[in-house]
Design brief:
The complex is a heterodimer of chains A (164) and B (105).
Chain A: H1 3-24, H2 28-48, H3 52-76, H4 91-113, H5 126-136, H6 138-159
Helix pairs in contact in A: 1-2, 2-3
Chain B: H1 4-23, H2 27-51, H3 58-88
Helix pairs in contact in B: 1-2, 2-3
Classes of the chains: A mainly alpha (164), B mainly alpha (105).
């Protein structure tokens, strides 16, 4: 066990614990706030795994924008403030499928990687990632910008109330 | 550093996301569970970047691409959810009837 492993384990426990609270809490607003903890500790994991730029983008986009959007949606749909009992459907089929998916994926990855050890590469700073994007992945980058524009226009069209 | 630790973490996070998508009735909570699954995929990309020899840092680039896709998905998804609430006064996903109502025309 190296320092990296201990840090990833600790942040991973925090991530899994708060993710479990996101899907089990009976308060709608608290689910959004636990999501902040999950995404923040996952950003910490990225930082430990040398993905600097990804960690900061995660903080900016997810914790900054996506969670705020979700909380806006919670308020616009007049979700109750207190605990509500009708948030969940029958639990057992979902538990079976979720545990099956997570457990089998974990077993597959444990079998593939065992206790194999690797050295961490140079940290992925903004300069290195930017060079990589514009050297190898220019076309996906441009397609993604078109997709983002299409999603923006689509969201405006869907939410506009104008009647023909 | 042992890559199996973050890989198992990502698998568990994906399982929790699947459970959340299947068990939640509120559409906004369902979108939160989808975000958990997308984050599990991001963690796999970042871990694969340090553990597999290939084009250096392409895993991190793809994690950035997935973050952009998730932002687009959440924008369109919440627009649909708000429109659903405006039409039906409810965002419980098992109360959405797909059949077209006569008075909705």
């Amino acid at each position: 066990m190296t320092v990296t492993d201990v840090l990833v384990c600790a942040l991973g426990l925090l991530t899994v614990g708060s993710a479990l609270l996101v899907v089990t809490t009976r308060h709608v607003v608290r689910a959004g706030l636990w999501l902040v903890v999950t995404l923040g500790s996952l950003a910490g994991c990225y930082l430990v795994l040398t993905a600097e730029l990804v960690a900061w983008v995660q903080m900016l986009i997810y914790v900054g924008a996506v969670v705020v959007l979700l909380l806006f949606a919670v308020m616009l749909t007049r979700a109750p403030i207190g605990p509500s009992d009708d948030l969940d459907r029958s639990r057992w089929p979902a538990l079976l499928v979720g545990a099956g998916a997570g457990g089998s994926l974990a077993a597959l990855l444990v079998d593939a990687y065992r206790w194999h050890s690797v050295d961490l590469p140079e940290p992925g700073t903004a300069e290195r990632i930017g060079t990589e994007i514009f050297r190898e992945w220019v076309l996906p980058f441009e397609v993604l910008s078109v997709l983002l524009l299409a999603a923006l226009v689509g969201a405006i069209v869907v939410s506009s109330t104008g009647r023909r | 550093m042992h890559p199996v630790v973050p890989y198992v973490l990502a698998a568990l996070l994906f399982g929790i996301g699947v459970y959340g998508v299947l068990v939640r009735r509120n559409a906004v909570l369902l979108l939160m569970a989808v975000e958990l699954m997308l984050n599990a995929v991001n963690l796999v990309f970042v871990t694969a970047d340090v553990s597999i020899v290939g084009v250096p840092r392409s895993g991190q680039v793809f994690a950035l691409f997935v973050i952009v896709l998730a932002a687009a998905e959440i924008g369109v998804g919440l627009a649909i959810v708000l429109q659903l609430y405006r039409l039906r006064q409810s965002i419980a996903v098992d109360e959405v009837d797909v059949a077209e109502r006569e008075d909705a025309r």
